[in-house]
Amino acid sequence: MEYTMLKDLNDTHDTWRIRVRICRLWDSTNPQKNGELISIDMIFIDEKENLMHATIKKHLASRFRHLLQEGSTYSIKNLQVVKATGDYRPLSSEFKCIFLATTSPKKLQEDTVQIPRHGFQFVMPDDIESRLNDPAILTDVVGLLSGIGEVDIVGNNWKKRDLHIITNHSVNATITLWGKHIEQFDPKIYKEEDGPHIIIVTSTTIKKFKGAVSFNSTNNSKIYMNLDIPYVMTLRERFARHSTKLKFIESSNSNKYTLEEKMFFHRMSIKELVDSKWSEDLKIRANVKDKLTCNDGMEPPRECGKRKASMIDDAEESGGNK
User: Fold this and answer.
1) What 3-state DSSP class applies to 4?
2) Which terminus of the chain is less hemmed in, N or C, by CB atoms within 10 Å?
3) Measuring CA to CA, which residue among 24, 4, 27, 28 is closest to residue 15?
4) Are 99 and 16 in contact (CB under 8 A)?
5) How are the residues of the chain apportioned to helix, strand and coil, as percentages rounded to the nearest 5?
6) Within a 10 A sphere around the Cβ of 97, how many other Cβ atoms?
7) Which residues pair with 309 in a beta bridge?
8) Which homologous superfamily is 125-249 in?
9) Residue spans of beta strands (DSSP E) within 210-269
10) What is the model's pTM?
11) Bigger pLDDT: 171 or 305?
12) Got the DSSP string for 267-321?
């Protein structure tokens, strides 16, 4: 069976047959209409590592959603190919694919064909100026993670977190994560001894403030840390001489929040608290009374007694005593 490579697709007909992997898959939604679905979008990659954006319009979403899975390979026939236009395009390419009612995807066995699991269009230095404040083409960015900011609240209660990176072209830059992407990024798991940490954020917009470049996540963005691909391995080797200690970026609004609000931003589970590294110069004291319940099969569970604990509710220097 003959397949067409993605780079050879054009808008001359709607009977193309391709063999690809879906390396990214997401819902495009309208935040102005309570997250109403606009389309299902994806990035195709073929065995020659060509990439192409594909979209399923809202009225066909239910027909195809259960048939497609991120990371799987497919034989797909009867795709429409059109010029790629409009804003927030995830790739810089001339064409994109559109699923029709007659489009037929067939999932393939993993060993049918060797297709890479991931594909990106990492921004080149010459492209940054042309994309500043222009949402037409979104940008994939990769670099060494060097700093992590705390969660900040700006504007109309928008949550954001700034990350500092050294890009693959050795440029210092900021990645600003917004909304749901803050929850997807857990800074506590990136330990110094496991570095260097290479971060990829896809589909960002580019802005510049006071001469500094900033990459901002969008609803279409995905975050990858230390992805197991050759290019990331190369970057980890290249940045191995850099310090792997992540710097803390203080919020510009830190003085605007009460202690209780800051505690809410930085909540930890009991397990996370117990597993944390504690300074020998820090002592904690508080008065705690709680009722202990024995869950020993008795119905209802019986009270086993009361426990008192003494801890400090504020951090104080203790001269090295614990």
Assistant:
1) coil
2) N
3) 4
4) no
5) 20, 40, 40
6) 24
7) 288
8) Nucleic acid-binding proteins (2.40.50.140)
9) 212-216, 223-225, 247-249
10) 0.76
11) 171
12) ---HHHHHHS---TTEE---EEEEEEEE-SS-SSPEEEEEEEEE--SS-EE-TT-
The token pair at 137 is 């083409």
* Residue 278: predicted pLDDT: 53
- Beta-strand pair 247-249/139-149: parallel
CATH code for 6-107?
Answer: 2.40.50.140
Q: Could you check whether 6-107 and 125-249 share the same CATH topology?
A: yes
Task: For residue 41, give the nearest of 86, 102, 3 by alpha carbon.
Answer: 86
Beta strand 247-249 with 172-178: parallel, antiparallel or unpaired? unpaired
Q: Where are the domains of the chain?
A: 6-107, 125-249, 260-317
Q: Taking Cα atoms as reference points, which of 75, 213, 211 lies closest to residue 143?
A: 213
In order, the DSSP letters of 137-203 are B-EEEEEEEEEEEPPEEETTTEEEEEEEEEETTS-EEEEEEETHHHHH--GGG--GGG-PPEEEEEE
pLDDT, one tens digit per residue, over 240-293 is 888 777 887 776 654 454 545 445 445 556 665 566 555 555 555 555 555 444
How far apart, in Å, do the first and last CA atoms of the chain sit? Answer: 72
d(C-alpha 165, C-alpha 143), whole Å: 6
Q: Which residues contact 40 (CB under 8 A, 6 or more apart)?
A: 25, 26, 27, 28, 55, 56, 61, 64, 65, 68
Residues listed for the chain: 322
**Max Cα-Cα span within the chain:** 79
3-state secondary structure of 21: strand
Task: Please give the Cα distance from 99 to 101 (Å, whole number).
Answer: 7
Q: Residue 202 corresponds to which tokens in the numbers above?
A: 């896809």
CA 79/CA 100 separation, integer angstroms: 6
Separation in Å, CA 141 to CA 15, 192, 246, 264: 34, 22, 19, 30
